[in-house]
Design goal:
Blueprint (H helix, E strand, L loop, with lengths): L13 E5 L4 E5 L2 E2 L3 E6 L4 E6 L16 E2 L6 E5 L2 H8 L5 H12 L20 H33 L13 H10 L13 E3 L7 H4 L4 H10 L9 E3 L3 H15 L5 E2 L6 E2 L20 H16 L1 H18 L5 H22 L5 H10 L2
Parallel strand pairs: 5-7
Antiparallel strand pairs: 1-2, 1-9, 2-7, 3-6, 4-5, 8-9, 10-11
Protein backbone atom coordinates (compact mmCIF):
# COMPACT_ATOMS: atom_id res chain seq x y z
CA UNK A 1 0.00 0.00 0.00
CA UNK A 2 1.26 3.43 -0.91
CA UNK A 3 2.35 5.60 2.02
CA UNK A 4 2.44 9.34 2.50
CA UNK A 5 5.79 11.08 2.00
CA UNK A 6 7.49 11.31 5.38
CA UNK A 7 9.77 14.22 4.45
CA UNK A 8 9.89 17.03 1.91
CA UNK A 9 8.84 15.92 -1.56
CA UNK A 10 9.08 17.50 -5.03
CA UNK A 11 6.46 15.55 -7.01
CA UNK A 12 2.74 14.92 -6.60
CA UNK A 13 -0.47 16.48 -5.30
CA UNK A 14 -2.16 15.37 -2.05
CA UNK A 15 -5.47 16.62 -0.59
CA UNK A 16 -7.52 15.79 2.53
CA UNK A 17 -10.50 17.24 4.39
CA UNK A 18 -11.87 18.34 7.75
CA UNK A 19 -15.62 18.91 7.18
CA UNK A 20 -16.25 19.67 10.86
CA UNK A 21 -13.96 22.72 10.65
CA UNK A 22 -15.09 23.46 7.07
CA UNK A 23 -11.48 23.18 5.86
CA UNK A 24 -9.51 21.30 3.24
CA UNK A 25 -5.74 20.87 3.11
CA UNK A 26 -3.35 20.10 0.30
CA UNK A 27 0.36 19.71 -0.33
CA UNK A 28 2.16 20.08 -3.63
CA UNK A 29 5.50 21.58 -4.70
CA UNK A 30 5.20 25.20 -5.82
CA UNK A 31 7.15 27.72 -7.87
CA UNK A 32 7.90 31.12 -6.37
CA UNK A 33 6.27 32.90 -9.29
CA UNK A 34 4.00 35.72 -8.13
CA UNK A 35 3.38 33.81 -4.90
CA UNK A 36 4.77 33.17 -1.45
CA UNK A 37 3.45 31.12 1.48
CA UNK A 38 2.16 32.65 4.70
CA UNK A 39 3.05 30.19 7.46
CA UNK A 40 1.07 29.37 10.60
CA UNK A 41 3.77 27.33 12.30
CA UNK A 42 1.79 26.62 15.46
CA UNK A 43 -1.05 24.91 13.55
CA UNK A 44 1.18 23.46 10.81
CA UNK A 45 -0.79 25.29 8.13
CA UNK A 46 0.12 27.61 5.26
CA UNK A 47 -1.76 29.90 2.90
CA UNK A 48 -0.60 31.11 -0.50
CA UNK A 49 -0.38 34.86 -1.03
CA UNK A 50 -0.28 36.22 -4.58
CA UNK A 51 2.28 38.96 -5.17
CA UNK A 52 2.08 41.78 -7.69
CA UNK A 53 5.74 41.25 -8.52
CA UNK A 54 6.96 37.93 -9.87
CA UNK A 55 9.09 37.26 -6.82
CA UNK A 56 8.65 38.17 -3.18
CA UNK A 57 12.34 37.43 -2.58
CA UNK A 58 14.81 37.54 -5.44
CA UNK A 59 16.36 34.08 -5.92
CA UNK A 60 20.05 33.50 -6.16
CA UNK A 61 21.77 33.17 -9.54
CA UNK A 62 21.96 29.42 -9.05
CA UNK A 63 18.22 29.26 -8.49
CA UNK A 64 16.79 31.79 -10.89
CA UNK A 65 13.41 30.08 -10.98
CA UNK A 66 13.30 27.48 -8.21
CA UNK A 67 10.76 24.74 -7.66
CA UNK A 68 10.14 24.50 -3.93
CA UNK A 69 9.50 21.14 -2.28
CA UNK A 70 6.61 20.77 0.13
CA UNK A 71 5.67 18.73 3.18
CA UNK A 72 2.55 16.87 4.23
CA UNK A 73 3.24 18.10 7.77
CA UNK A 74 2.95 21.78 6.72
CA UNK A 75 0.02 21.83 4.30
CA UNK A 76 -1.87 24.62 2.58
CA UNK A 77 -5.28 25.39 4.13
CA UNK A 78 -8.46 26.57 2.45
CA UNK A 79 -12.24 26.65 2.94
CA UNK A 80 -13.84 23.22 2.46
CA UNK A 81 -14.71 22.98 -1.25
CA UNK A 82 -12.60 25.95 -2.34
CA UNK A 83 -10.53 23.87 -4.80
CA UNK A 84 -13.76 23.08 -6.66
CA UNK A 85 -14.98 26.67 -6.49
CA UNK A 86 -11.68 27.98 -7.84
CA UNK A 87 -11.85 25.59 -10.79
CA UNK A 88 -15.45 26.59 -11.56
CA UNK A 89 -14.51 30.28 -11.51
CA UNK A 90 -11.11 30.00 -13.22
CA UNK A 91 -10.50 32.07 -16.35
CA UNK A 92 -8.63 29.87 -18.80
CA UNK A 93 -8.91 32.36 -21.70
CA UNK A 94 -5.15 33.03 -21.67
CA UNK A 95 -2.09 31.96 -19.70
CA UNK A 96 -1.91 35.02 -17.44
CA UNK A 97 -5.57 34.76 -16.43
CA UNK A 98 -5.27 31.01 -15.94
CA UNK A 99 -2.30 31.52 -13.65
CA UNK A 100 -3.85 34.40 -11.70
CA UNK A 101 -7.18 32.64 -11.12
CA UNK A 102 -6.05 29.05 -10.53
CA UNK A 103 -2.49 27.83 -11.06
CA UNK A 104 -0.76 30.22 -8.67
CA UNK A 105 -2.58 28.30 -5.93
CA UNK A 106 -2.18 24.72 -7.11
CA UNK A 107 0.86 24.59 -9.37
CA UNK A 108 1.13 22.25 -12.35
CA UNK A 109 1.48 18.79 -10.80
CA UNK A 110 -2.10 17.96 -11.83
CA UNK A 111 -1.24 18.45 -15.50
CA UNK A 112 1.42 15.75 -15.67
CA UNK A 113 0.11 14.51 -19.02
CA UNK A 114 1.02 17.83 -20.61
CA UNK A 115 4.35 18.56 -18.92
CA UNK A 116 7.43 18.19 -21.15
CA UNK A 117 9.39 15.04 -20.22
CA UNK A 118 6.67 14.29 -17.63
CA UNK A 119 8.24 16.48 -14.95
CA UNK A 120 9.08 20.06 -14.17
CA UNK A 121 12.74 20.71 -13.48
CA UNK A 122 13.96 21.69 -10.03
CA UNK A 123 15.35 25.00 -11.28
CA UNK A 124 15.37 27.04 -14.45
CA UNK A 125 18.03 29.40 -15.75
CA UNK A 126 15.71 32.39 -15.62
CA UNK A 127 12.18 33.48 -14.95
CA UNK A 128 11.57 33.68 -18.70
CA UNK A 129 12.62 30.04 -19.10
CA UNK A 130 10.17 28.96 -16.38
CA UNK A 131 7.30 31.00 -17.82
CA UNK A 132 8.00 29.54 -21.27
CA UNK A 133 7.55 26.00 -19.95
CA UNK A 134 4.43 26.99 -17.99
CA UNK A 135 2.89 28.51 -21.12
CA UNK A 136 3.63 25.34 -23.07
CA UNK A 137 1.87 23.26 -20.42
CA UNK A 138 -1.09 25.66 -20.48
CA UNK A 139 -1.38 25.58 -24.27
CA UNK A 140 -1.13 21.78 -24.45
CA UNK A 141 -3.74 21.27 -21.71
CA UNK A 142 -6.18 24.07 -22.66
CA UNK A 143 -8.70 21.83 -24.41
CA UNK A 144 -8.82 19.48 -21.44
CA UNK A 145 -9.07 22.36 -18.96
CA UNK A 146 -12.08 23.89 -20.71
CA UNK A 147 -13.84 20.51 -21.04
CA UNK A 148 -13.28 19.60 -17.39
CA UNK A 149 -14.51 22.99 -16.21
CA UNK A 150 -17.60 22.78 -18.44
CA UNK A 151 -18.47 19.29 -17.18
CA UNK A 152 -18.23 20.30 -13.53
CA UNK A 153 -20.25 23.46 -14.13
CA UNK A 154 -23.03 21.42 -15.74
CA UNK A 155 -23.01 19.00 -12.80
CA UNK A 156 -23.03 21.76 -10.17
CA UNK A 157 -25.78 23.70 -11.95
CA UNK A 158 -27.97 20.58 -11.93
CA UNK A 159 -27.27 19.54 -8.32
CA UNK A 160 -27.86 22.99 -6.85
CA UNK A 161 -30.61 24.14 -9.24
CA UNK A 162 -28.56 26.90 -10.83
CA UNK A 163 -29.75 26.12 -14.35
CA UNK A 164 -33.34 27.27 -13.88
CA UNK A 165 -34.67 23.70 -13.59
CA UNK A 166 -37.04 23.54 -10.61
CA UNK A 167 -38.31 19.97 -11.21
CA UNK A 168 -35.96 18.37 -8.65
CA UNK A 169 -35.29 21.35 -6.38
CA UNK A 170 -36.42 19.43 -3.28
CA UNK A 171 -34.31 16.35 -4.03
CA UNK A 172 -31.20 15.62 -1.97
CA UNK A 173 -27.87 16.89 -3.31
CA UNK A 174 -26.32 13.42 -3.14
CA UNK A 175 -29.25 11.86 -5.00
CA UNK A 176 -28.87 14.30 -7.86
CA UNK A 177 -25.09 13.86 -7.89
CA UNK A 178 -25.27 10.07 -8.17
CA UNK A 179 -28.04 10.13 -10.77
CA UNK A 180 -26.08 12.66 -12.83
CA UNK A 181 -23.10 10.29 -12.88
CA UNK A 182 -24.98 7.06 -13.53
CA UNK A 183 -27.03 8.45 -16.41
CA UNK A 184 -23.91 9.81 -18.16
CA UNK A 185 -25.10 13.42 -18.50
CA UNK A 186 -21.50 14.25 -19.45
CA UNK A 187 -18.06 12.65 -18.99
CA UNK A 188 -17.72 13.51 -15.30
CA UNK A 189 -18.36 9.89 -14.29
CA UNK A 190 -15.03 8.94 -15.87
CA UNK A 191 -13.18 11.18 -13.40
CA UNK A 192 -13.86 8.79 -10.51
CA UNK A 193 -11.04 6.46 -11.61
CA UNK A 194 -7.25 6.88 -11.30
CA UNK A 195 -7.56 8.19 -7.74
CA UNK A 196 -5.40 6.75 -4.99
CA UNK A 197 -6.67 6.77 -1.42
CA UNK A 198 -3.93 6.65 1.20
CA UNK A 199 -5.47 5.29 4.39
CA UNK A 200 -4.52 7.00 7.61
CA UNK A 201 -2.72 4.90 10.21
CA UNK A 202 -1.79 5.37 13.83
CA UNK A 203 1.86 5.31 12.84
CA UNK A 204 1.21 8.67 11.14
CA UNK A 205 0.19 10.16 14.49
CA UNK A 206 3.47 9.50 16.25
CA UNK A 207 5.24 12.61 15.00
CA UNK A 208 2.34 14.85 16.02
CA UNK A 209 1.71 13.38 19.48
CA UNK A 210 5.02 11.89 20.54
CA UNK A 211 5.44 14.41 23.39
CA UNK A 212 2.50 12.92 25.34
CA UNK A 213 3.09 10.32 27.98
CA UNK A 214 0.91 7.20 28.03
CA UNK A 215 -1.06 8.51 31.02
CA UNK A 216 -1.51 12.05 29.69
CA UNK A 217 -2.64 10.94 26.24
CA UNK A 218 -5.13 8.47 27.71
CA UNK A 219 -6.64 11.23 29.86
CA UNK A 220 -6.80 13.57 26.88
CA UNK A 221 -8.64 10.94 24.85
CA UNK A 222 -11.05 10.33 27.73
CA UNK A 223 -12.06 13.97 27.53
CA UNK A 224 -12.04 14.29 23.74
CA UNK A 225 -11.34 11.28 21.53
CA UNK A 226 -11.44 13.46 18.42
CA UNK A 227 -8.00 14.93 19.13
CA UNK A 228 -6.57 12.07 17.09
CA UNK A 229 -8.63 12.09 13.94
CA UNK A 230 -8.11 9.50 11.22
CA UNK A 231 -8.12 11.25 7.86
CA UNK A 232 -7.63 9.64 4.47
CA UNK A 233 -5.53 11.45 1.88
CA UNK A 234 -6.29 11.50 -1.85
CA UNK A 235 -3.76 11.81 -4.65
CA UNK A 236 -3.82 11.78 -8.45
CA UNK A 237 -1.92 13.21 -11.39
CA UNK A 238 -5.11 14.46 -13.01
CA UNK A 239 -6.87 17.74 -12.28
CA UNK A 240 -10.26 16.28 -13.23
CA UNK A 241 -9.95 13.44 -10.72
CA UNK A 242 -8.87 15.57 -7.78
CA UNK A 243 -11.76 17.94 -8.51
CA UNK A 244 -14.12 14.94 -8.50
CA UNK A 245 -12.84 13.94 -5.05
CA UNK A 246 -13.44 17.44 -3.70
CA UNK A 247 -16.98 17.55 -5.13
CA UNK A 248 -17.85 14.09 -3.79
CA UNK A 249 -16.48 14.88 -0.32
CA UNK A 250 -18.29 18.22 -0.23
CA UNK A 251 -21.65 16.74 -1.21
CA UNK A 252 -21.35 13.90 1.32
CA UNK A 253 -20.11 16.03 4.22
CA UNK A 254 -21.72 19.45 3.89
CA UNK A 255 -25.28 20.73 4.05
CA UNK A 256 -24.27 24.03 2.50
CA UNK A 257 -25.28 24.69 -1.11
CA UNK A 258 -23.15 26.03 -3.92
CA UNK A 259 -24.60 29.26 -5.27
CA UNK A 260 -23.93 31.97 -7.82
CA UNK A 261 -23.14 35.47 -6.61
CA UNK A 262 -25.81 37.98 -7.58
CA UNK A 263 -23.14 40.64 -8.02
CA UNK A 264 -20.36 38.95 -10.03
CA UNK A 265 -22.07 35.68 -11.13
CA UNK A 266 -19.21 33.57 -9.75
CA UNK A 267 -19.80 30.30 -7.90
CA UNK A 268 -19.42 30.40 -4.11
CA UNK A 269 -20.15 28.50 -0.91
CA UNK A 270 -22.05 30.50 1.74
CA UNK A 271 -19.89 31.04 4.79
CA UNK A 272 -22.63 31.72 7.35
CA UNK A 273 -26.21 31.40 6.05
CA UNK A 274 -27.66 29.37 3.19
CA UNK A 275 -29.60 32.38 1.91
CA UNK A 276 -26.52 34.54 1.27
CA UNK A 277 -26.69 36.40 -2.03
CA UNK A 278 -23.12 37.62 -2.43
CA UNK A 279 -19.77 35.85 -2.33
CA UNK A 280 -16.67 36.68 -0.28
CA UNK A 281 -14.41 36.67 -3.36
CA UNK A 282 -12.39 39.81 -4.12
CA UNK A 283 -12.80 41.98 -7.20
CA UNK A 284 -10.07 43.81 -9.10
CA UNK A 285 -10.34 46.76 -6.70
CA UNK A 286 -9.78 44.40 -3.75
CA UNK A 287 -13.31 44.81 -2.37
CA UNK A 288 -15.49 41.77 -1.69
CA UNK A 289 -18.74 41.20 -3.54
CA UNK A 290 -20.50 41.01 -0.18
CA UNK A 291 -19.58 44.64 0.45
CA UNK A 292 -20.24 45.83 -3.09
CA UNK A 293 -23.47 43.88 -3.33
CA UNK A 294 -24.82 45.36 -0.10
CA UNK A 295 -24.19 48.87 -1.43
CA UNK A 296 -25.83 47.96 -4.72
CA UNK A 297 -28.88 46.56 -2.92
CA UNK A 298 -29.11 49.68 -0.77
CA UNK A 299 -28.95 51.88 -3.86
CA UNK A 300 -31.64 49.82 -5.58
CA UNK A 301 -33.84 50.06 -2.50
CA UNK A 302 -33.46 53.81 -2.55
CA UNK A 303 -34.67 53.88 -6.12
CA UNK A 304 -37.61 51.57 -5.38
CA UNK A 305 -38.79 53.02 -2.04
CA UNK A 306 -39.58 56.76 -2.14
CA UNK A 307 -39.44 57.06 1.66
CA UNK A 308 -35.81 55.87 1.77
CA UNK A 309 -34.92 58.15 -1.13
CA UNK A 310 -36.39 61.11 0.77
CA UNK A 311 -34.35 60.11 3.82
CA UNK A 312 -31.16 60.09 1.77
CA UNK A 313 -31.91 63.49 0.24
CA UNK A 314 -32.73 65.03 3.63
CA UNK A 315 -29.66 63.44 5.23
CA UNK A 316 -27.31 64.85 2.59
CA UNK A 317 -28.90 68.31 2.81
CA UNK A 318 -28.71 68.50 6.62
CA UNK A 319 -25.18 67.05 6.66
CA UNK A 320 -23.94 69.78 4.26
CA UNK A 321 -25.66 72.49 6.31
CA UNK A 322 -23.80 71.31 9.42
CA UNK A 323 -20.50 71.07 7.53
CA UNK A 324 -20.86 74.67 6.32
CA UNK A 325 -22.14 76.08 9.62
CA UNK A 326 -18.72 76.87 11.07
CA UNK A 327 -19.23 74.55 14.09
CA UNK A 328 -22.82 75.59 14.90
CA UNK A 329 -23.49 73.36 17.92
CA UNK A 330 -27.28 73.79 17.86
CA UNK A 331 -27.46 72.86 14.18
CA UNK A 332 -25.26 69.81 14.83
CA UNK A 333 -27.44 68.75 17.80
CA UNK A 334 -30.63 69.13 15.77
CA UNK A 335 -29.11 67.05 12.95
CA UNK A 336 -28.07 64.25 15.34
CA UNK A 337 -31.56 64.21 16.90
CA UNK A 338 -33.26 64.10 13.48
CA UNK A 339 -30.93 61.33 12.26
CA UNK A 340 -31.57 59.19 15.34
CA UNK A 341 -35.36 59.51 15.04
CA UNK A 342 -35.29 58.97 11.25
CA UNK A 343 -33.24 55.78 11.59
CA UNK A 344 -35.65 54.49 14.25
CA UNK A 345 -38.53 55.15 11.85
CA UNK A 346 -36.72 53.20 9.10
CA UNK A 347 -36.11 50.34 11.56
CA UNK A 348 -39.82 50.33 12.47
CA UNK A 349 -40.67 50.15 8.75
CA UNK A 350 -38.32 47.21 8.13
CA UNK A 351 -39.83 45.39 11.13
CA UNK A 352 -43.37 46.01 9.85
CA UNK A 353 -44.36 48.31 12.70
CA UNK A 354 -45.26 51.19 10.33
CA UNK A 355 -46.25 51.21 6.67
CA UNK A 356 -44.24 52.63 3.78
CA UNK A 357 -46.82 55.46 3.45
CA UNK A 358 -46.40 56.34 7.14
CA UNK A 359 -42.63 56.39 6.77
CA UNK A 360 -42.84 58.54 3.64
CA UNK A 361 -45.23 61.00 5.33
CA UNK A 362 -42.87 61.40 8.31
CA UNK A 363 -39.87 61.99 6.02
CA UNK A 364 -41.71 64.68 4.05
CA UNK A 365 -42.97 66.44 7.18
CA UNK A 366 -39.54 66.38 8.87
CA UNK A 367 -37.11 66.89 6.00
Amino acid sequence: MRKLPQANFSEGFYIWFNPENKEEYYSTPMYMYKTYPHNDMENHRREIIKEKDFYNHKPSKKESAPKHPTSIYFSFKEQFGRFLINLLNADFSNFENAYNTFFYLYGFELLKDYIPHKELETTYSSEDALVKIMKEVYEESLGELIEVQRNFRECIDFIYNLNGNENLKDSKYNSKFVSFLITHQNDIYTYSSDIEVILDTYSNKVEEHYKYSLMDLTKQLDQDNSIIKMTNVYTSEKLSNITFVVLEQFIKNSNLPIKKCQYCDRYFIPSIRQDELYCDLPNEDGKLCREKGAKQTYKQNLEKIPALLEYRKAYQKKFMEVARSDNNKKLKKDFDTWKKIAQCKIKDYKQGKITEDELYKWMIENR
